[in-house]
Amino acid sequence: MTQLPARNQIFLDHVAHFVPSLEDASAAMEAAGFVLTPFTRQQNRTPEGMVPSGMANRCIMLDEGYIELLTAVSETELSRQFQQAVERYVGLHLIALACGDAEAAHAHLEREDFAPNEPVNLTRPVEGEEGEEMEARFTVLRVNPGIMPEGRIQILEHHTEKAVWQPRFKAHDNAVRSLKAVLLVVEDPQEAAVRFGRFCGRPSEACGDGKFRLELDRGSCVFLSREAASAQLPWLKEGLQAPWMAVQALGSSDLPRTVERFSAAGFTVIAGSVESGEVTFRLPAALGGYLSVVAHDAQPSWAA
To answer: How many domains does the chain have?
Structure first.
Protein backbone atom coordinates (compact mmCIF):
# COMPACT_ATOMS: atom_id res chain seq x y z
CA MET A 1 0.00 0.00 0.00
CA THR A 2 1.45 3.34 -1.03
CA GLN A 3 1.19 6.40 1.17
CA LEU A 4 1.44 8.70 -1.79
CA PRO A 5 -1.51 10.11 -3.75
CA ALA A 6 -1.72 9.81 -7.50
CA ARG A 7 -1.24 12.94 -9.56
CA ASN A 8 -4.91 13.94 -9.38
CA GLN A 9 -5.47 12.95 -5.74
CA ILE A 10 -5.06 14.79 -2.45
CA PHE A 11 -4.74 13.16 0.98
CA LEU A 12 -4.94 14.29 4.58
CA ASP A 13 -1.24 13.59 5.06
CA HIS A 14 -0.51 14.69 8.62
CA VAL A 15 -1.35 17.05 11.44
CA ALA A 16 1.11 18.70 13.80
CA HIS A 17 0.96 19.56 17.47
CA PHE A 18 2.90 22.77 18.19
CA VAL A 19 4.51 22.00 21.55
CA PRO A 20 6.79 24.12 23.78
CA SER A 21 8.41 20.97 25.21
CA LEU A 22 9.09 18.28 22.66
CA GLU A 23 10.43 16.10 25.48
CA ASP A 24 7.17 16.23 27.45
CA ALA A 25 4.97 15.76 24.37
CA SER A 26 7.06 12.80 23.21
CA ALA A 27 6.89 11.18 26.64
CA ALA A 28 3.09 11.47 26.63
CA MET A 29 2.83 9.80 23.21
CA GLU A 30 5.32 7.06 24.08
CA ALA A 31 3.39 6.29 27.28
CA ALA A 32 0.29 5.84 25.09
CA GLY A 33 1.99 3.11 23.06
CA PHE A 34 3.34 5.06 20.10
CA VAL A 35 6.75 4.59 18.51
CA LEU A 36 8.30 7.97 17.63
CA THR A 37 10.92 8.83 15.05
CA PRO A 38 14.15 10.30 16.43
CA PHE A 39 14.55 14.01 17.11
CA THR A 40 15.52 15.80 13.90
CA ARG A 41 16.15 19.41 12.92
CA GLN A 42 14.47 20.43 9.68
CA GLN A 43 16.42 22.18 6.95
CA ASN A 44 15.58 23.89 3.68
CA ARG A 45 17.59 23.10 0.56
CA THR A 46 18.37 26.37 -1.27
CA PRO A 47 20.71 27.32 -4.15
CA GLU A 48 23.08 28.66 -1.48
CA GLY A 49 23.06 25.36 0.44
CA MET A 50 21.21 24.00 3.46
CA VAL A 51 19.44 26.56 5.66
CA PRO A 52 17.93 25.72 9.08
CA SER A 53 14.15 26.10 9.16
CA GLY A 54 14.22 26.90 12.88
CA MET A 55 12.02 23.89 13.66
CA ALA A 56 12.57 20.33 14.87
CA ASN A 57 10.22 17.38 15.14
CA ARG A 58 9.45 13.84 16.08
CA CYS A 59 6.78 11.93 14.18
CA ILE A 60 4.30 9.10 14.70
CA MET A 61 4.07 7.25 11.41
CA LEU A 62 0.84 5.37 10.67
CA ASP A 63 -0.34 3.00 7.96
CA GLU A 64 -2.25 6.01 6.63
CA GLY A 65 -0.78 9.43 7.37
CA TYR A 66 1.07 10.51 10.49
CA ILE A 67 1.15 12.85 13.49
CA GLU A 68 3.95 15.34 13.96
CA LEU A 69 5.22 16.91 17.19
CA LEU A 70 6.83 20.21 16.23
CA THR A 71 8.87 22.69 18.25
CA ALA A 72 11.11 25.70 17.68
CA VAL A 73 14.89 25.39 18.04
CA SER A 74 16.23 28.66 16.55
CA GLU A 75 15.08 32.11 15.51
CA THR A 76 13.48 32.15 12.04
CA GLU A 77 10.24 33.37 10.50
CA LEU A 78 8.71 29.90 10.96
CA SER A 79 9.73 29.74 14.61
CA ARG A 80 8.26 33.22 15.20
CA GLN A 81 4.98 32.01 13.73
CA PHE A 82 5.23 28.96 16.00
CA GLN A 83 5.66 31.14 19.11
CA GLN A 84 2.62 33.25 18.19
CA ALA A 85 0.56 30.09 17.71
CA VAL A 86 1.44 28.48 21.05
CA GLU A 87 0.68 31.74 22.85
CA ARG A 88 -2.92 31.13 21.73
CA TYR A 89 -2.96 27.45 22.67
CA VAL A 90 -0.82 24.32 22.70
CA GLY A 91 -2.13 21.74 20.26
CA LEU A 92 -2.84 21.26 16.59
CA HIS A 93 -1.83 24.20 14.43
CA LEU A 94 -0.89 22.50 11.16
CA ILE A 95 -2.75 20.47 8.55
CA ALA A 96 -0.68 19.09 5.69
CA LEU A 97 -2.35 17.83 2.53
CA ALA A 98 -0.32 15.52 0.29
CA CYS A 99 -0.50 15.90 -3.48
CA GLY A 100 1.07 13.95 -6.32
CA ASP A 101 2.40 16.98 -8.22
CA ALA A 102 3.63 20.03 -6.28
CA GLU A 103 4.17 22.06 -9.45
CA ALA A 104 0.54 21.59 -10.50
CA ALA A 105 -0.65 22.31 -6.94
CA HIS A 106 1.38 25.55 -6.87
CA ALA A 107 -0.20 26.64 -10.16
CA HIS A 108 -3.65 25.83 -8.75
CA LEU A 109 -3.02 27.99 -5.66
CA GLU A 110 -1.95 30.85 -7.91
CA ARG A 111 -5.08 30.52 -10.06
CA GLU A 112 -7.25 30.58 -6.94
CA ASP A 113 -5.54 33.80 -5.72
CA PHE A 114 -3.89 32.29 -2.63
CA ALA A 115 -0.57 33.92 -3.62
CA PRO A 116 1.52 30.92 -2.53
CA ASN A 117 5.11 31.39 -1.41
CA GLU A 118 7.84 29.88 -3.52
CA PRO A 119 8.02 26.09 -2.99
CA VAL A 120 10.26 25.02 -0.10
CA ASN A 121 12.48 21.96 -0.48
CA LEU A 122 12.40 20.65 3.07
CA THR A 123 14.75 17.88 4.22
CA ARG A 124 15.58 16.01 7.38
CA PRO A 125 18.15 13.27 8.03
CA VAL A 126 16.84 9.73 8.55
CA GLU A 127 18.54 6.52 9.60
CA GLY A 128 17.51 3.50 7.55
CA GLU A 129 16.54 0.05 8.82
CA GLU A 130 20.17 -1.13 8.55
CA GLY A 131 21.65 2.01 10.06
CA GLU A 132 22.40 3.61 6.71
CA GLU A 133 22.15 7.37 6.29
CA MET A 134 19.09 8.50 4.36
CA GLU A 135 17.34 11.78 3.68
CA ALA A 136 13.62 12.52 3.85
CA ARG A 137 12.71 15.09 1.20
CA PHE A 138 9.51 17.06 0.65
CA THR A 139 8.37 19.93 -1.54
CA VAL A 140 6.19 22.13 0.66
CA LEU A 141 3.74 24.82 -0.50
CA ARG A 142 2.74 27.48 2.03
CA VAL A 143 0.81 30.74 1.97
CA ASN A 144 1.38 33.86 4.03
CA PRO A 145 0.02 33.94 7.61
CA GLY A 146 -3.57 35.16 7.73
CA ILE A 147 -4.60 33.84 4.33
CA MET A 148 -5.60 30.62 6.09
CA PRO A 149 -6.27 31.97 9.60
CA GLU A 150 -7.02 28.50 11.03
CA GLY A 151 -3.30 27.73 11.18
CA ARG A 152 -0.49 26.52 8.98
CA ILE A 153 -2.38 24.87 6.13
CA GLN A 154 0.03 23.51 3.55
CA ILE A 155 0.29 21.20 0.59
CA LEU A 156 3.29 18.95 0.09
CA GLU A 157 4.68 16.35 -2.23
CA HIS A 158 6.66 13.46 -0.75
CA HIS A 159 9.79 12.33 -2.62
CA THR A 160 11.11 9.63 -0.26
CA GLU A 161 8.27 7.37 0.87
CA LYS A 162 10.52 4.49 1.97
CA ALA A 163 12.68 6.74 4.14
CA VAL A 164 9.67 8.31 5.87
CA TRP A 165 7.32 5.33 6.40
CA GLN A 166 9.75 2.70 7.68
CA PRO A 167 8.03 -0.41 9.10
CA ARG A 168 9.80 -0.10 12.46
CA PHE A 169 8.25 3.34 13.01
CA LYS A 170 4.73 1.97 12.43
CA ALA A 171 4.92 -0.83 15.02
CA HIS A 172 2.70 0.83 17.62
CA ASP A 173 1.61 -1.18 20.66
CA ASN A 174 -1.74 0.63 20.79
CA ALA A 175 -3.17 -0.65 17.45
CA VAL A 176 -3.57 2.84 15.94
CA ARG A 177 -3.32 2.66 12.16
CA SER A 178 -4.68 5.76 10.49
CA LEU A 179 -5.34 9.49 10.59
CA LYS A 180 -9.01 9.90 9.70
CA ALA A 181 -10.19 13.50 10.11
CA VAL A 182 -9.71 16.90 11.76
CA LEU A 183 -12.42 19.05 13.35
CA LEU A 184 -11.96 22.82 13.13
CA VAL A 185 -13.98 25.34 15.15
CA VAL A 186 -14.30 28.56 13.11
CA GLU A 187 -16.35 31.76 13.10
CA ASP A 188 -17.98 31.02 9.72
CA PRO A 189 -17.92 27.29 8.87
CA GLN A 190 -19.38 27.72 5.39
CA GLU A 191 -16.81 30.33 4.39
CA ALA A 192 -13.95 28.27 5.83
CA ALA A 193 -15.11 25.05 4.15
CA VAL A 194 -15.49 26.72 0.77
CA ARG A 195 -12.06 28.37 1.11
CA PHE A 196 -10.40 25.07 2.10
CA GLY A 197 -12.13 23.49 -0.89
CA ARG A 198 -10.70 26.13 -3.23
CA PHE A 199 -7.31 25.65 -1.58
CA CYS A 200 -7.11 21.97 -2.44
CA GLY A 201 -9.46 21.72 -5.41
CA ARG A 202 -12.26 19.72 -3.79
CA PRO A 203 -15.89 20.73 -3.20
CA SER A 204 -17.12 21.05 0.38
CA GLU A 205 -20.61 20.06 1.48
CA ALA A 206 -23.15 21.11 4.08
CA CYS A 207 -24.05 18.28 6.47
CA GLY A 208 -26.87 19.94 8.43
CA ASP A 209 -26.90 21.52 11.90
CA GLY A 210 -24.35 24.11 10.80
CA LYS A 211 -21.70 21.51 9.93
CA PHE A 212 -19.63 21.57 6.75
CA ARG A 213 -17.26 18.85 5.54
CA LEU A 214 -14.43 18.73 3.05
CA GLU A 215 -13.95 15.15 1.86
CA LEU A 216 -10.52 14.39 0.42
CA ASP A 217 -9.35 11.34 -1.50
CA ARG A 218 -8.22 10.12 1.93
CA GLY A 219 -9.36 11.80 5.11
CA SER A 220 -11.58 14.80 5.76
CA CYS A 221 -11.80 18.21 7.43
CA VAL A 222 -14.94 19.19 9.34
CA PHE A 223 -16.00 22.75 10.22
CA LEU A 224 -18.28 23.89 13.05
CA SER A 225 -19.03 27.28 14.56
CA ARG A 226 -18.43 27.83 18.27
CA GLU A 227 -22.17 27.79 18.89
CA ALA A 228 -22.70 24.55 16.96
CA ALA A 229 -19.67 22.91 18.59
CA SER A 230 -20.92 23.84 22.05
CA ALA A 231 -24.38 22.47 21.30
CA GLN A 232 -23.40 19.28 19.47
CA LEU A 233 -20.17 18.42 21.33
CA PRO A 234 -20.58 19.75 24.87
CA TRP A 235 -17.29 18.18 25.92
CA LEU A 236 -15.56 20.81 23.73
CA LYS A 237 -16.58 23.66 26.02
CA GLU A 238 -13.23 23.58 27.82
CA GLY A 239 -10.98 25.88 25.81
CA LEU A 240 -13.62 26.54 23.14
CA GLN A 241 -12.41 29.27 20.79
CA ALA A 242 -12.18 30.08 17.10
CA PRO A 243 -10.25 29.43 15.02
CA TRP A 244 -9.19 26.19 16.68
CA MET A 245 -8.03 22.83 15.35
CA ALA A 246 -9.83 21.12 18.18
CA VAL A 247 -10.02 17.38 17.49
CA GLN A 248 -8.23 14.77 15.42
CA ALA A 249 -9.65 11.32 14.69
CA LEU A 250 -7.54 8.17 14.54
CA GLY A 251 -8.46 4.72 13.28
CA SER A 252 -7.64 1.60 15.30
CA SER A 253 -7.47 -2.08 14.39
CA ASP A 254 -8.25 -2.99 18.04
CA LEU A 255 -10.34 -0.32 19.76
CA PRO A 256 -10.30 -1.91 23.25
CA ARG A 257 -6.51 -2.12 23.09
CA THR A 258 -6.18 1.51 22.01
CA VAL A 259 -8.50 2.75 24.74
CA GLU A 260 -6.64 0.70 27.34
CA ARG A 261 -3.25 2.12 26.37
CA PHE A 262 -4.47 5.70 26.08
CA SER A 263 -6.29 5.57 29.42
CA ALA A 264 -3.25 4.10 31.19
CA ALA A 265 -1.15 6.96 29.79
CA GLY A 266 -3.42 9.59 31.33
CA PHE A 267 -5.48 10.49 28.27
CA THR A 268 -8.87 11.40 29.81
CA VAL A 269 -12.01 9.76 28.41
CA ILE A 270 -14.66 12.46 28.05
CA ALA A 271 -17.17 10.90 25.64
CA GLY A 272 -18.18 7.58 24.10
CA SER A 273 -17.27 3.99 24.90
CA VAL A 274 -15.74 0.92 23.33
CA GLU A 275 -19.25 -0.51 23.00
CA SER A 276 -20.41 2.52 20.99
CA GLY A 277 -17.43 2.19 18.66
CA GLU A 278 -16.05 5.67 19.37
CA VAL A 279 -14.11 7.08 22.31
CA THR A 280 -12.98 10.69 22.68
CA PHE A 281 -10.10 11.76 24.91
CA ARG A 282 -8.84 15.06 26.25
CA LEU A 283 -5.10 14.99 25.67
CA PRO A 284 -2.49 15.92 28.29
CA ALA A 285 -1.49 19.59 28.49
CA ALA A 286 1.88 18.81 26.88
CA LEU A 287 0.00 17.90 23.66
CA GLY A 288 -3.20 19.94 23.86
CA GLY A 289 -6.58 19.36 22.25
CA TYR A 290 -8.81 16.33 21.83
CA LEU A 291 -8.62 12.98 20.08
CA SER A 292 -11.38 10.61 18.92
CA VAL A 293 -10.67 6.95 18.19
CA VAL A 294 -12.81 4.74 15.96
CA ALA A 295 -12.37 1.48 14.08
CA HIS A 296 -9.91 1.70 11.19
CA ASP A 297 -12.71 1.43 8.61
CA ALA A 298 -15.10 3.84 10.39
CA GLN A 299 -15.51 7.59 10.78
CA PRO A 300 -16.08 9.61 13.97
CA SER A 301 -19.66 10.74 14.53
CA TRP A 302 -18.66 14.40 14.25
CA ALA A 303 -17.35 13.79 10.71
CA ALA A 304 -20.53 12.12 9.45
So the answer is: 2
Q: 189 and 228: one domain? A: yes
Same domain, yes or no: 128 and 219: no
| Contact assessment for residue 241 and residue 150, using Cβ atoms and an 8 Å cutoff | no
CA distance 228 to 128: 46
Calculate mean pLDDT across residues 90-113. 97
User: Which helix or strand (DSSP H or E) is residue 85 part of?
Assistant: helix 77-88
299's enclosing H/E stretch is none
Q: Does residue 262 lie within any of the structural domains?
A: yes
Strand partners, 214: 204, 221
- List, for residues 154-164, the tens digit of each pLDDT value: 999 999 999 88
The runs of H, that is alpha helices, within 136-248 are 161-164, 189-200, 226-232
Nearest to 232 by CA among 151, 300, 150: 300
Residue 296 is part of which domain span? 176-303
**What's the pTM value of the predicted model, to 2 decimals?**
0.95
